[in-house]
Amino acid sequence: MEKLKNYIYGEWVEGTGNGMPLYNAVTGEQVAVSDTEGLNFEQALDYGRTVGYKNLSSMTFYDRGEMLKKVALYLLERKKKYYELSYKTGATHADSWVDIEGGFGTFFTYSGLAKRMLPNTPFWVDGETQKISANGTFLGTHILTPSEGVSIQINAYNFPVWGMLEKLSTSLLAGVPSIVKPSPYGSYLTNAVFQDMIESGVLPEGALQLVCGEPGNILDYVQDGDSVLFTGSAHTGRKLKSMPSIAGNAVRFNMEADSLNCSILGLDAKPGTPEFDLFIKEVRTEMTTKAGQKCTAIRRIIVPEHLIGDVQNALSKALDQTKIGNPLSRETRMGSLVGKQQYDEVVRKVNILKSETELVYDGKHELIDADYDNGAFMSPKLFLNDKPFEKNISHDVEAFGPVSTLMPYKDAEEAAALAKRGKGSLVGSIISHDESFIAETSWKMASQHGRIFVLNRDNAKESTGHGSPLPTLMHGGPGRAGGGEEMGGLNGLHFFLQKTAIQGSPDVLTAITKVYQQGAEKKFSDKHPFQKYFEDVEVGDSLETAGRTVTDADIVNFSNVSWDHFYAHTDATSLTGTIFDKTVAHGYFILSAAAGLFVSGKKGPVIANYGLENCSFFKPVYAGDTITVYLTAKEKINRGVKGRNIPSGVVKWLVEVVNQRDEIVCVATILTLVAKHSPFIDLNVKNVQKILGGLTETTPLNWGKISPQQMIEHLEHGVLVSLGEPEADKCFTPEEQLEKWQDSLYNHRKMPKDFPAPFLAEDETLLELKHKNLDAAKQSFLDNLKRFSVYYKENPQAEHMNFVFGKLNKEMWELMHKKHFTHHFEQFGLI
């Protein structure tokens, strides 16, 4: 039987003991053996703190976000084999999708957040700069850096993939290396995914390690700066948290534990209403998904007392329709528990619940292509607690399986009180169309819940469901649920980051943070900042504009154009008792006039205005005042670009508007999209002619099989096709892939060197030569390139077919030629 290997200090290592057998939860057959005996955990932690931390923490947040995306794409291509293993854990296809592709989705989400919102630096400036001196020569701010240590994640058995990836999404993005310790049950699935993560070659050395079995004494070696993330029972979690190595050191500890989550049916949600039907569907889903083995599953069903019978009947019928059995059968809607040991534990908890509450539904005991003797199957079980304020067992005992308890309430006050008797939950839901009931109940129960999910007819079609934690929202809960906070968008990174206050002069803070601070030295040059590509812009690049004197006509005209006829701008007789001496210029006029002063009218790398932040007006501007603008590059944000967008970054510009007395009248931050340098040549004919001057009949190839003249005539043929001479009659790219190929014209990735032309046979030459020699071919090519430029000026809407990219317009043809020319010119070492 295969023994699962551990990945420690950069090597795949087998344990030296007999190990623990792991069984198929459906058939009872042995799948693998997990064994961690003989591993040097102290060395593993030290390896993570040194090699792993150095490699990860030196990367920028932006690059770590790109790393997550590459790993997720690599795993997504291999997902089929993960499903085949997941079925052995008892999970259905739907269960497996949540675990496997839900995990990948978390990586994708955090990658997107990093690219949109995090800096291209190894640190992160947090919050606004604080002015802590009268004249602004002494400032303060905060930066976040990766906590100097290693993170150990101890995961539960219910989500072998998502449980690992949702923790790694934040720790890896924060720059902290991790050691993953999955539950032995289902660890063969975790192991398979982990192997591919390492084999992808995307992760730096030391970023990840895997302990696939019992954790041994690994937590004895944690120290200051390390962190532990635990998912499991509250009893085990408290025991770990109190260990001397954790409690006695500055070890960060995050726990997600037991959770007796509830769902409340509103007083208005009577049978026949959409909300009643939604409630029954949601409860059934949460009882049967993953066979109820979810930390977010509904354990307590809180229902108006006069609807208890209706809910019990409707829910019992819905559960009767849920077919249980082998996950490989298409009919199956609920699989098994993860193993016999877990089955025995759930039975023990069910018997405890029976001691105080009535079992009112025990399900059908029929199985599809499976049997109870070999598999860990359990039918759904519904209890009734008729006196939930007196009988506390339902609020104290969690049976981690398809088990839930009905309980009645009288009013919103009682509903919230029952919800809170769970003593801390990951999630509570309210299903109602009565906004007053929802509002009153939700804020009263919020203190004991990490998330409140409200469902009704208005959001049902797009709702993700009671039991689905989302990467952009916090996953965790107070009290019994452990007090942990995972994910929650960028907030989830804070657990792994050290926050440090930075104090100093504006120049010092600018140097440290890479964000321009007001009062720091400005860098003036003859070149307008808007004429610089993204890579060339430096924080501190500045422009001082000419002055503009505001006139009465400006104020009147702006009122008429904007329709802003506020009295302070238009009626001098109404200013008594106001802060204005006379009619004042509109604030938005000042901002618009400032833009008119600092914008460069000449076409350049600045693509568009991307936004406006923190605009403030400090002093009124009257007719006769003269304004001058200081424009300064404040911050650069690298940006991932998709689809048909020009590769670009965002530059934040500080706009300071002063009057003739050098008083600041307006300060704002504008955001612009700024193009990045293209790696492809310009189509300028003189530029191309200069490049071709270096091409001779004897110029050697860097790759491929083509002569210099064949290459020139091949490019010329491409130009002629873009003019419709001749019109290509076919595109060889399948229709379903065409949009992706056309989008690729916009990115800065070069054409692959080994790409075979799809319209040529393997032994076919590109074209038969039509020109007498290379010089004649060059001249003809340049003449047709001139024709291309003129043609699309005269026919800007023209479109012609390309053999690979389909029908292309002027912009796309230009992009295609730039890439194509660059490809072949590099082939001959001309550029």
From TrEMBL:
Chain positions covered by the region annotation Disordered: 460-484
Alphabetized CDD domains for the sequence: ALDH_MaoC-N
Keywords for this protein: Oxidoreductase
MF term (GO), any: oxidoreductase activity, acting on the aldehyde or oxo group of donors, NAD or NADP as acceptor
The keyword Mitochondrion is annotated on this UniProt entry: no
Matching InterPro entries: Ald_DH/histidinol_DH, Ald_DH_C, Ald_DH_N, Aldehyde_DH_dom, DUF1569, HotDog_dom_sf, MaoC-like_dom, PaaN-DH
Annotated ranges, domain MaoC-like: 539-639
Pfam families referenced in this protein's UniProt entry, alphabetically: Aldedh, DUF1569, MaoC_dehydratas
Domain Aldehyde dehydrogenase: 12-499
Protein name, as recorded: Phenylacetic acid degradation bifunctional protein PaaZ
Naturally occurring in which organism (per UniProt): Chryseobacterium antibioticum
Gene it is expressed from: paaZ
